[in-house]
Amino acid sequence: MTKHAAPEKQMVRIGFNPLTDCASVVMAAVLGFDEKYGIKIVPSKESSWAGVRDKLLSGELDAAHSLYGMVYGTQLGVGWQKRDMAILMNLNRNGQAITLSRRLAEQGAVDGATLAALMQSAPRTYTFAQTFPTGTHAMWLYYWMAAHGIDPMRHARVITVPPAQMVSNLGAGHMDGFCAGEPWGHRAVMDGIGITAATSQQIWPEHPEKVLATSAEFARAHPNTCRAVIAAVLEASRWIDASAANRMAMAEIISAVPYVNTSKDVISARILGHYQDGLGKSWEDPHPLRFHHEGAVNFPFLSDGMWFMTQQRRWGLLKADPDYLAVASAVHQIKLYREAADMTETPVPQGVLRSSTLMDGKQWDGSNPERYAASFSIRQ
């Protein structure tokens, strides 16, 4: 293990939104993994993804639990000022859900195919919410709808709602469904106001989800601090995934008011892979929310970042194809990650691209992003 210089900044303020997948950042601080690497992580609860972005750019936050696509949207200047960003690591895979209202379920819409049939047979304005225009949840929602023949840009109204406000807005009848991170999908099921129509891992098994992000400026000025943060969060990720008992202990801690602020049972079932859809169906999910998985989760594959750019291009958020590989190579701090992985004895994959097959049978491997982005029949 290589010895590295001391962190340039000891107190590191890391933003998060109240979601189950903020757990590795929170647990790195709670369990003291940060102190092992000469830093103190101060978790900062935020109320929206736009707030996270703004505080990252102003320097109020040093780093943040972030949406993959939000980082790329900022990097490419989609809907906001263009600023160079840095992804330090992936925080988790899987564990998000598309929820439909109980009212839609009673009309027969319980999955993608039946939703498409209902929208065709009973035309009106159907409203669905995602958590940020360029974010992961927007992309999962659009991909899922389009795979069932629904054009999200033409056949529906899509709005942006912060994750923790999804359930109350669904209950108030402001929308017909939403895509968000847990525990809010399960909360809607437990409250009897929504049903789980799809999990994100049904859309893309082992998909990338949140990342640990910072500005490129911060990463350049504080490489030792960034390396220490990655190492601390890697250790916390490994600890969470080590046992069901650790996951339950994590659920107890993050359910508290300073973090997710919900009951522990809303969090604990799905992190153990126990799913129910609100319609009487239960299953053990083979692709539950993962935080480490022997390091496979945490490596910032370039192809993961490139996929989000292909979808932003697909939906007209990007008006032209970027240089996908060059942009991802600039954003992903693979050298820092490898060094932190070495410090924590975390396995690192050989390559920087990986291959996946999504729900519509399309394969993504990062090899020809321009062709991939243009290959969808439903696109802008």
From TrEMBL:
GO terms for cellular component: endomembrane system. It is found in: Endomembrane system. InterPro entries: NrtA/CpmA_ABC-bd_dom (IPR044527). Signal peptide: none annotated. This is ABC transporter substrate-binding protein. The keyword Membrane applies. Pfam families: NMT1_2. It comes from Pseudoduganella aquatica. Keywords: Cell inner membrane, Cell membrane, Membrane, Signal, Transport. The lineage of its organism: Bacteria, Pseudomonadati, Pseudomonadota, Betaproteobacteria, Burkholderiales. Coiled coil: none annotated. Its main location: membrane.
